[in-house]
Amino acid sequence: MTPAELSRTVLRSVRGAVEERELSVPVPARIVVQPPPRPGCGDYASNVALQLAKPAGRPAREVAEILRKRLAGTAGIDRVEIAGPGFLNFTLGDGALVALVRDVLAQGAAYGDRSAAGGPNTGRASAGRPGTGAREAVVGEALERIGAAAGRTGRAGGPPALVPAPDDLATLTARLGTDETRWILLRPAAHDPVRVPERPVQREGNPRFRVQYAHARTRALVRNAVDLGFTGEPGDVGAPAAAGSGAEFRPAPASAHALHTLLATHPSVVEAAARLRAPDRLVRHLEATADAFFRWHDDCPPLPVGEQKPLAVHRARLALAEATGTVLANGLRLLGISAPEHL
């Protein structure tokens, strides 16, 4: 179940409660679900009960309990819990990660991109109209691409009011290269200044390099797996259980769930970046996805070690790595930054 599907499911529960007169409120047009602010609070959370409490004339926790009962047992949702003053926390079923990986791989370049752009972007920014600053030109071009991906073509305006970059685009590109230039211009929020490094740094301390390296690593895993005679297949990414335990796999670690959440929220991040005219949101999401990938990779190596033969769990992990690479490549393409196969 994706965040969009969960949002629609919660909306149906509200509509049902209104139709059956458990609640007397206007049905909202949409319901926001997002990762919870703290670990251990489920996969997603929503404050819909707090929003409906005042028009319903009832305590938020009472509204939340009405919705919790309606949502309990829904396919794809393992648990619905009430937290704090009335937040709904959702834990998805075990099949959610498998379904997500399958969906990402099936959609490929179209995942998070309704325009389903063809090949990768060259990352070459247009110079913009005469007098256009470097940052305005790069942000404006990225917003056009992100807006098309979110289905908002023709509705997005130009770049927001931006703190200008200290140098012109040609100077920055000659000094830093295209990818680094675009990254440093797109990464800060509109009201934040651009910090220009002395030179591009090709190591993991550089967020742009880390994202590109994560993508290149996913592609290397696929190549290495082919050399070992296997390919990815969505499945359980947990470790094989100990003999005699009665289970086939131990549960996937927290790092797998964190990566799952970031992959699942990629389309909504693209939509928010378009709606708010804030490409920096997509930049930060790619950074978080790359970091989550490396943590998961250390916990769950996708390739067999030593003389070990490839198992079903390795095929499942490779599929998750492929899906991560797809999301990273799609996000980089929308920013106009290259997604190298080798690095």
Explain what this protein looks like in three dimensions.
By secondary structure, the chain is mainly α. Helices cover 50% and strands 5% of the residues. It is built from 12 helices and 3 strands, in the order αβααββααααααααα. A 3-stranded antiparallel sheet has the order 1-3-2, with helices on one face. Strand 2 and strand 3 form a beta hairpin. The longest helix has 24 residues. The relative contact order is 0.13. About 3% of the residues have low confidence.
Radius of gyration: 22 Å
Strand order of the largest sheet: 1-3-2
The average pLDDT value, as a whole number, equals 87
| Principal-axes shape call | flat
At a glance:
The chain is mainly α. It contains twelve helices and three strands.
List descriptors:
flat, mainly alpha, 3 strands, 343 residues, 12 helices
Please give the structural blueprint.
Elements: H1 3-19, E1 44-46, H2 48-56, H3 60-71, E2 77-83, E3 87-92, H4 95-107, H5 134-149, H6 169-176, H7 178-186, H8 207-228, H9 254-264, H10 266-275, H11 279-299, H12 312-335
Antiparallel strand pairs: 1-3, 2-3
Helix pairs in contact: 1-3, 2-3, 4-9, 4-12, 5-10, 6-7, 8-11, 8-12, 9-11, 10-11, 11-12
